Amino acid sequence: MAAPSRQFCWLFWLLALNCSAEEKIGPSFDCQRARLEIEQDICSNDVLARADQFIHDCYQALLKLSPDKNKLIAEQRAWLQSRNHYRDNNRNQRFFNNQEFIAGSYDEIVQLYDAFASRIAELFEQLPPSQQRQLREHYLRQMGFRNPPSNPVAKWIDQQERNYAFETLANDCNRVTWDVLRNDRGLAVVMNTYSYQCGGTSWSGTSLEVYCINHNQLTQVDASPLNNEFERVQAAQNPADQNDDQLIAFADRLSTNTLCGTTK
């Protein structure tokens, strides 16, 4: 396999920096006292632990604002009771939004992620925008996202990663990476790789995004005509010996003048 390009190395360094800086978040309770199965599940799964802590933080913030604290407390207790009996379909309706829990299936973890994500959305969306931003940034800092880079392409990727990290706070099934194939001469070419692995199912796919760079501003170009050729380049490679240089050569052949007009 050819040596990775400088663009690839730069992106992997950026991702490694974020990953290495990520802190373990949650759960909101002492795992040494965990007795219930769901508590042990949370303690053994970093995604569920982070989601549990986030739900707790949203709930505590809402308690300070709610004009009807008793109603909010009752709702949270009902959700926790349903969560605590998540394997009992006679008692878990609130936790799973009235969906049947399929015990012993590949989808167990998917259902758990979805249940936590649903409660996060319910609570988070009740917070005022200023507190949403504050809580969002607090968690992103703990997940390794701190000072955004100044390079316009790196800054754009950082923003995509921030958004995606927050959107998938309670979901470890999906993955998206942004690999820079080219970032020069007024043109940036980014390869998106999407993958899913959960519930006994896995798939992956890639696509291109092309941006013209003008005065440090990015303007997206319609890359749909290019993706067919891009897929042919990928298909021509030996999966056992992927050659990054072929993908980068494809990106280098793209014309700034053709795609960006007068953009330099």
UniProtKB/TrEMBL annotation:
Residue span(s) of domain Lysozyme inhibitor LprI-like N-terminal: 38-109
PANTHER family to which the protein is assigned, alphabetical: LIPOPROTEIN LPRI
Protein name: Lysozyme inhibitor LprI family protein
